[in-house]
Each structure stands twice: as structure tokens, then as C-alpha cells.
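Subgroup meeting minutes
Present: P.N., E.W., G.H.
Scribe: E.W.

1. P.N. recapped why we're keeping a running log of single-chain structure predictions: easier to compare across weeks, and new members can see raw inputs and outputs side by side.
2. G.H. added today's entry (110 aa).
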Amino acid sequence: MRNPGHVDGELTEFHTAADLVDHNCRVSYTHGLYKYDPIADKEDEPIRVQVKKASQDTDENWKNSIPTDGYTDDEIDLFAGYAPEPDKVFYVLIEETGSEFSVLNETGEI
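Output recorded in log:
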């Protein structure tokens, strides 16, 4: 039986890849020990994306958060957070984050 956490991670990456394609990006997958997951190519500009499943705040169900600590702008360009409820992906540039980033159930723009 597969680890449910690994399955959730893969589904999160697939939802994000589909959303990136909807935003006119080409998506390439990486293999190996990289800090980023896919690479999105928008207008011939590569974007290193770290994908996280967003956690819904138990006290404020309208708020979703992703952990962003442990990464630098030398390693990644963009965080993507997938929120299963309401089935949306949001984005934030690494330089706009601290150790965690929260959104109000809305999709960010690339």
C-alpha cells in the first residue's frame, strides 16, 4: 500500500501543473535532489516552483497556509500552494514570504 502522504503530494503537484498550463506555462518535471518541483516556462522564462499542499486553518476555515521556511531565492522562484477546499492553486514569489504564507481562499496570479 502506498503512503497516503506521498499520494497527496503527487496529487498536489498534478493539480498545480494543470493550473500552470491553464496560465499558459509549459511544465517540466525534475528528478533528483532539487529544492523545486516542476519548472514552469512562461514566455521563455523558466520559473522554479516549489509545490506545497495548503493546510486549512482549523479556527479560520477561510484561510489556507503553506510552510515556506528552508528555501532561498537561489533555489526557487515561486511557491505554489494547492488548497483542496476550494480546489484552487495560489502562488507567491519567494521574496514575499517568511516562514509561512497564508491566503484567503483565492487564487493568485502568475
